[in-house]
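re: ur question from the group chat, yeah i did fold both. here u go
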Amino acid sequence: AALDGFQIDVQLNIMSFLSPQDLCHLGSTSCYWRAAVQDPLLWRYFLLRDLPFWTSVDWKSLPDVEIFNKAFSEVSDSALYDYMAVYKKSCPQSRRSLKSSRPRYGAVTSFLQSLITQAEPRFAMFGPGLEELDDSLVQKMMTCPEILLVAGLPQRQIHGIGSGVSFQFNNNQKFNILTLYSTTSVERRRARAEQAVAVNKMFYQENSIVGNQRAVHYSVIAQVKKVCEVVDGFIYVANAEAHKKHDRQEELARILAMIDPALGPPNRPLLVLSCISHIGVKRIPCVYMAHQLQLNLLRQPWMVQDTVAATLAGLLNGIEWLLEEANCKNAQ
């Protein structure tokens, strides 16, 4: 009642100090406040303020880049974006609560699946974050059983590419990761010592002319092609360290080469681990990473998950999403 006596601009200023959750609670107190808390300027402020701190975003929740670029006066149809709806759709907490509110058939499904012998889902892991960071994500995954348990080290490789390692998620489901490096370990160490960029041997480049511009297109080499044909999904480890230079257009071209529908089912999920070496390194927010990589152009399910190589923070959240998507695909 004390807020009712203030002018609307003062009310908006006060509400800007509330959390979105508190704002929704305020809106439940009266018809006036239900309308007041939906002010688009207020929710645009919340969106731009909180978005850099979100730790994940997916193909269903990525905010349209136009929302950030357009001023209010430029929005089509003389109407403002429903920033409140955009915030609720994109916020990781809202996505988690929506997920937990769905009917819980998971226990029954897991029991039924346990009665059937199934092959471990296999994922191809690749990307510059595997090779450019000061801390090794793969080495940490192999040596942290309290976070991710190594369930097996197969004695074979698929056509000599990568190392297939079986892991166990939450002491339950097993899955296999085939790690694909762009060069040999010797070449990677030399490139790091010389601060040079090693030649990526997983792809070969094909150029074409589109209009008056040259378009860069990549294809995978024969050995990598064999891997892409048998996996159930992909893990792309992106270098999210803000102080380093990144060619995201070239990264997108290589992602497209790996997930080429000609190499397998077009709906295989893609998990992007937006990775930094250790806590304290300034990172590129996951929403910005999704836009830089132009993941909105992809047609299969994807998610970007903030990850820290030194602690594996965020990794299990990404793996959980990937396994759920792969299981849904296999159940179809």
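okk and heres the other one u asked abt
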Amino acid sequence: MSYVANAHKSRSVIDADTTQVTVFTGFLGAGKTTIIIDLLKRVNPKYTIVLLKNEFGDAETDSALARESHIQVTEMTNGCLCCVLVGQMKRALEEMKAKYRPDRIIIETSGSAFSAPIAWQIREMESSGFHLDSILTVVDCINFCGYEDTSYTARMQAQYTDLILLNKWDHVTERQLDIVVDHINELNTDTPKIKVGLDGSVDPEMIFGLDTKLFALSDRPFAAAGGTGENRSHHAQEVDLVEIRRSQDAGSTKEGISSAEFTAFLMSLPAEDVYRVKGIVRLVGSVSGSDAPLANVKTDSSAHYIVNHAFGRYTLTCLTAKTQQAPDMLVCVTILGSGLRMHLPRLLEGFMASEVEATVRWAQRPE
């Protein structure tokens, strides 16, 4: 069964000095960063694109990963673009336009972001030379049917979008894929749906020039009536968050976590509860055993690695000298999921951390 459909292309006349803006949404661990990194490698080198990355927590994991691919990134951390950081996003876009004069800015939202406030902010900036081109949603075909039932955000992301990118479809059966598409169609029948390539690839021609009609400024009164307006507590309602920061003590000879013990720890995490683990850890020994490709793997005695774990699958990427972290940093990770309170002792053990080195925020789901 084919899910490919042709999205409408732009009919607007865009001034040469106008910067097009593409917004990527998608729930935690859907694979947005991987798709964006591959996408940027496919455009003409003379076509300038910069990435505005919204990280959940303050571990700039995906931004470090993007820099490893020589992509210019601006980070916005410790908040969400759709609520607490929406004002800062305006300043960030203006600074990026002035500094880089890009043809296009790609905004990658956090996994729990609503697209409406982001879209309205960009539309308000049209007089400053910005044009909202499209809102794209990445769907994790392995896990969508699970988190769709518990996440209001995931449903909204699938419902209000110009194009749905079906990711990880090669890891499910044809029948399971049909079920995922059926669930999406219950939310959004008309929006085109395309399969992402096996290597995370998407043709730029498919996603650039869509000229979205979503979230016109005239739609804002609908938000006040309880529609797609911002909900500043939506993160607290949906996910637990654990952040662990650990540095090497002065005089300590401990160089990091055993790579063998750490990979075993990652593989033991329950996918139904631990949605994401992302951050940077210092590992000792050769890294092996991942069920997904590893990049820049070292066999040195100790090195910093980007860990990117989503619903039971993970990758480890060894940082180069260009993006290397502070030498005394051992752990800087953000963990997102459901029911993490009961897993906290195991998480602390896996990262060799104490309670005072962890910051927690438990979900406050409505009764």
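fwiw on the second one: The chain is about 25% helix and 25% strand. The longest strand covers residues 130-140. idk if thats what u expected
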